[in-house]
Amino acid sequence: MIQLLTSYFFEEPKHINSFYVRKKDATDQFWTTAHVVGKRMADVELYVLTSSRTFSAAEEFTYNLKAMKRATIVGETTGGGAHPVDYVQSDDLKIGMSVPFGRAVNPITGTNWEGTGVEPDVKTTAEAAFDKAYLLALERAQSKSEGPRKEELKWVLEYRKALTEPLALPEEKLRDYVGRYALRTISLEDGKLFYQRDGRPKGALYAVADDRFALEEAEFFRLQFERNSAGEIIAVRGLYLGGNGDRSEREPRQK
Description:
The chain contains 5 helices and 16 strands. It is α+β, with helices and mostly antiparallel strands.
């Protein structure tokens, strides 16, 4: 399966791994296959997500791609099982054990991941690995894009960062935004800001920059608060990708 999957990510034949077998004192090589069903994806950026429970064949797949610099590994250090084993049972002793009969030998590193696991390129928890990899992919895609696509990816990236890596604002500062802005209401509940437009559902706000917020489940919408020369918030703008938006002035606070 490792050989099959890896073959899709290269155009030219690649030596991906070898196994030395003690009994025959020989080393078997494994290469990508010359033929695959469907389309190869040699230019597709790869991100492999790992946890401490990633083990054995899944580790080899990860280790091989990392050694060939073909993928970015995101997550936790893997379990560390690189030696194939046989189960050996002793009738005399009434016990059984798993005994290694060989070892993996990577053609690039000359070694393997036995006992050490595969170190990720970007360390994070298994739970956060997908979000982190998604941010990395967006950042790379945005850096390579131009024109409207670049701006669109900028908004998506800003939104995803707001949800997964929100700016931490003290509650005292959050209170500055609370109020009524024409058809819009900003409220503070349990230390978190919420936005609601009249007649529509309430949604949580996530800070992306000074006086700028993203709204949950609204990827291409932002709220930008305006301040006067004295630093007081006087209005809020609802902004959309492409430049459209509207402005709502703040109503006087009730004393």
